[in-house]
Known about the structure:
Elements: H1 2-24, E1 26-30, H2 37-44, H3 48-54, E2 67-71, H4 75-84, E3 105-107, H5 114-120, H6 125-131, E4 146-148, H7 160-164, E5 183-186, H8 193-199, H9 204-210, E6 223-227, H10 233-239, H11 243-248, E7 264-266, E8 269-271, E9 274-276, E10 279-282, E11 288-290, E12 295-302, E13 308-314, E14 318-325, E15 327-328, E16 335-336, E17 341-344, E18 355-362, E19 365-367
Antiparallel strand pairs: 1-2, 3-4, 5-6, 7-10, 8-9, 10-18, 11-17, 12-13, 12-16, 13-14, 14-18, 15-17, 18-19
Amino acid sequence: xxxxxxxxxxxxxxxxxxxxxxxxxxxxxxxxxxxxxxxxxxxxxxxxxxxxxxxxxxxxxxxxxxxxxxxxxxxxxxxxxxxxxxxxxxxxxxxxxxxxxxxxxxxxxxxxxxxxxxxxxxxxxxxxxxxxxxxxxxxxxxxxxxxxxxxxxxxxxxxxxxxxxxxxxxxxxxxxxxxxxxxxxxxxxxxxxxxxxxxxxxxxxxxxxxxxxxxxxxxxxxxxxxxxxxxxxxxxxxxxxxxxxxxxxxxxxxxxxxxxxxxxxxxxxxxxxxxxxxxxxxxxxxxxxxxxxxxxxxxxxxxxxxxxxxxxxxxxxxxxxxxxxxxxxxxxxxxxxxxxxxxxxxxxxxxxxxxxxxxxxxxxxxxxxxxxxxxx
Length: 376
């Protein structure tokens, strides 16, 4: 009888302390950009089902900043990760993406993957992952996304104080791109909203809300936003433009400012048997040149025959180019507003007279500027 009593007490203690022992072997993980349940399972030696059960998750959707319970890493591994993590005092200032010149980037094309991109640019896969702050090689990439393909540390001419200028003096510097601002998907043949939603851990209703869609109909080549703020209906219509539409339509948007006052002296298209990727607008030396849209300066310097050049990056994979300038008035990383004075017209580089060479590009492809500029 006494032996049975002690066995009962031992069993009761075991059932009481087992959950506490399990809790002691767990730790918190704060979800960051690129995290997936599959990736976390590999990192913490757990199954997706285990993570879902422990955290009472009904699906595989994760939110940035969400706290999950996961298995604790071995002490030596955790200690190694902690020691490898630089202290805030020792960390070097991080060079913002917006301060890197265009040659540091590669724009992803359909069919690309990280391994193929690393081979094509003669860099290691690990470096490509590190430079772009990816958690691992399984991260999702999409056409139109820009990847850093050169070591940002090589941009040594960018001084820390230049990067600091973009931060308010009374607030701490924030790490760039800690939150996904924009993610897009290009519709492929046989795609449906349901399939796209399922593969991107979202819902059909959310896709329709983000893209101002009134029906489930899709067009091959259509651009769908997977994150960010809802797009207005007219923007959604612009995103559905195919390459054929871009060639046929006389106008594809009407919200640009005129970059310089003057008359067009050379059109977009073939010129002397060679492609002329923009238009030339005659302007006297020193005539103000204006930004046609809000954007960020991604290049400001000299480029061979183009002379002094400014390149602005705008939303929706649009870039504008301003060339042959007498003087550039903005620097890489500067935020500019539509109509802001950014340069003075000139004839630097290979130019026969003072004028502005202007280009409008979508995903790197030059479009006839007459389709977007308020020209007569």
